[in-house]
Amino acid sequence: MRPTPSQTVGPFYGYALPFRGGGDLVPPGHPGAISVHGYVYDGAGAPIPDALLEFWQADESGNLDGRPGSMRRDEVDGSFAGRDGVTFTGFGRVATDLDGHWALRTVRPGGAPYIAVCVFARGLLHHLYTRVYLEDAGDALLASLPGDRRATLVAAPERDGVYRFDIRLQGEGETVFLDLG
Amino acid sequence: MPEPLTQETISREIAELHELAAKAGGGDHPSRDYPPYRSSGLRHPHRPLVAPPEAYTELRGPVFGVADVTPLDADLTRQHAGEPLGERITVTGRVVDRDGRPVRGQLVEVWQANASGRYPHQRDQHPAPLDPNFTGTGRCLTDADGRYAFTTIKPGAYPWKNHVNAWRPAHIHFSVFGTAFAQRLVTQMYFPGDPLFPYDPILQSVTDDKARERLVAAYDHESSRPEWSLGYRWDIVLDGPSATWMEEGR
Question: From B12's CA, which of A42, B68, B146, B249 has a CA 20 to 30 Å away?
């Protein structure tokens, strides 16, 4: 069967898709918690304030089964109740700030050594996939890329437990985006 | 001062790209570089996508459960004290993969403008009334047959600033998850027979005629409910990793 075509997420998803604690896969102070953060830039180098990022990863032991509860609902008032603070769902969703910045708090994925990322934005007609690697080592995709391209997929350690990962949609330093078939 | 960008210019660009697609074969999805949609200019990669040697993580995906959705979330007309204005409709359909297999228990999210064509978003300054009884967001999980169902009101068309006199045809935004992260889809559902279709660069960014038709729901009299609501039907086929990729576990 032929697939349903993609269309842009547009500018007005903000009251529909982001949810409370969307970028907090683990609670503050969780043992082994890391923060990954950065900016999303357009082809002119301007930050994109209306991008939406989704993250999907294995837990620390490499389990990719995922768990429900990323966007638990409060049945009393129909708001988002937040995660339960115990379950690692493996899924995160973060809208960029007005300055194009986003942040994720999670743990290092076990198994395949990367966090999968899906990028949506106004002006982007079909989402893009990329990956956050925390180290430039031991991975077949990284090994297949020339150095300057490879560097776009590797988060830079800023300080203990904090990594910087910028996404450039176009032009100089353009992030490697993936064809997942 | 630059000349105002007219519909005539946009329509000419749309026609040229349709002609190219007719020769070369338009894809199922829009090209990310689609000049008639001006905002795409600086927001698409110049370099080709890279096929990774493996995609263990992307071949799996997030899961959602009963705690992530309340039953009321699927009825956009019951989220406030009063009834929203507009034409009450139901939108139902199935989510399947490319082999036609139902996508079960997965999350479908929708958002839309109100009957006047206004979103309750501060950046939407279209001078049409907000409706205190309508927010326009909903979600549900697909059932064992991949079915979803929403009750809502028919959204209005609205102007935007892509060019002078640019109007979006009425549409409902859909966000859909498959079993693999690589099957993710965000798209828009349109209503049959809308006269704004040919003028809209976002819909026309799907340059293949048949593919574009797949974004248009069908009026479904069978699902219209007497004295209550009009029924529309729209099935969704998730793209994603080819069967070989899945089977070989690349």
Answer: A42
